[in-house]
Amino acid sequence: MANTDRLPLAGIRVIDLTQVYQGPYCTLLMAKAGADVIKVEPPKGEPIRQRQEVSRGAAVPFAMLNQNKRDMTLNLKSDEGKDILRRLVATADVLVENYAPGVMDRLGVGYEALKAINPRLIYASGSGYGITGPDKDRQAMDITVQAASGMMSVTGFPDGPPVKCGPAVVDFMSGTHLYAAILTALFHRERSGEGQLVEVAMQECVYPALASNLGMIYDTDQPPPRTGNRHGGLASCPYNVYPATDGYVAVICTNEGHFVNLCTAMDMPAMATDPRFRDRAARVRNMEETDAAIAAWTARHSRAEIKEIFGRTKVPHAIVRDLIEVTNDAHMHERGALGWVDHPDFGPIVVPASPLRLHGADTLPFAAAPRLGADTRAVLSGELGFSDGEIDRLEAEGVVVRYETREAAE
């Protein structure tokens, strides 16, 4: 582990029982801010790690989201495994889990049980619909919450079916909110000395992001339509993705100055004073004509030409890039937002830094995520005082599993 002494969360210990994307992203942000994150996995590893059985690339997200953490295995179905967790919690600051509501209570290691051991503990729970309410027991994955939250109903084109967002936006939105809840609770503890339970429901993180779409309800009393790449509230134009000779470009004009710049860039100055287009309301009323005129121009130019012309004339735009282009983005690499690591399981891969930039604080280097159980012995001996013989017995009984032990067994 790199030195974290000059990072904001140095000295904060986190017990990370999370899996997939939501929770691991939350604890990645904590690790990158200097917290000592001990990732506790079941003996076979968490679900994303197990994707290695499908393909190398399918499990790469695990490496992206679990950098700068220590990793140990623990069988929480065993009495001794639960006892080890309780002992870890006794000196921890935060425990984070995103199991289905009730799972931790049924294991005897829920909030009330752990609070009795450590009243200063921040216990953070991420779930789909919350730990209370009639929907709390509904199964929740990113795509199902996109559907239930209304996000999917407004994604796609008007003449097509509902479409999920390409990335796992709900998992990562809620992971970010979970991080914020934990930091807020730590600030509260700093003032009061008291720990607390905090929770974030994936569905509740989505609603504010639907602001543009929700506004339409109050004009039409009807569910908002799918608008494709147009503004979700159909209240701005141009706001769309337009064709180029070799791809696409996204263009948005949020004020009249932007639109005048666009008309100048397209060498169509008269369009800026045409009654059909001269202000936002007119362009929204004549959206089809507005978009058609812009598309006719962009379709005659390459992405590089459009980028040069629009950049020079200050038209808000972005070339639609594929993920290979983004992975190798010179800007993000120069800023240290992305970096290459040589992972022992996946080979050379690109991993992200924390988007949270705290100027004046140190930053951690990019690191390969730990192998399953890589730090089990170190945590048991260093944090809990187990002897080598005791750890050998725990391994033999399946309470914990080292990576080397698992590899030898295979």
Task: Briefly characterize the structure.
This protein has 410 residues and is an alpha/beta fold.
Overview of the molecule:
It is a single chain. The chain contains 20 helices and eleven strands. It is an alpha/beta fold. It has two domains: 13-207 and 328-409, Rossmann fold (3-Layer(aba) Sandwich); 239-324, 2-Layer Sandwich (formyl-coa transferase, domain 3). The protein has a six-stranded parallel β-sheet with strand order 3-2-1-4-5-6, with helices on both faces. It has a three-stranded antiparallel β-sheet with strand order 7-8-9, with helices on one face. The longest helix is centred in the middle third of the chain and has 24 residues, at 169-192.
Structural class: alpha/beta
Assigned CATH architecture of the largest domain: 3-Layer(aba) Sandwich
What CATH calls the topology of the largest domain is Rossmann fold
Total separate domains: 2
Q: Whole-number radius of gyration?
A: 25 Å
Strand order of the largest sheet: 3-2-1-4-5-6
Low-confidence stretches: none
Q: Whole-Å distance between the termini?
A: 28 Å
Number of helices: 20
Strand content: 5-15%
The CATH superfamily label of the largest domain reads: Crotonobetainyl-coa:carnitine coa-transferase, domain 1
**If you average the pLDDT, what whole number results?**
94
Count the strands? 11
**Roughly how much helix do the residues carry, as a percent range?**
25-40%
Please summarize the sheet with the most strands. 6 strands, parallel
Question: What's the CATH C level of the largest domain?
Answer: Alpha Beta
Shape: elongated
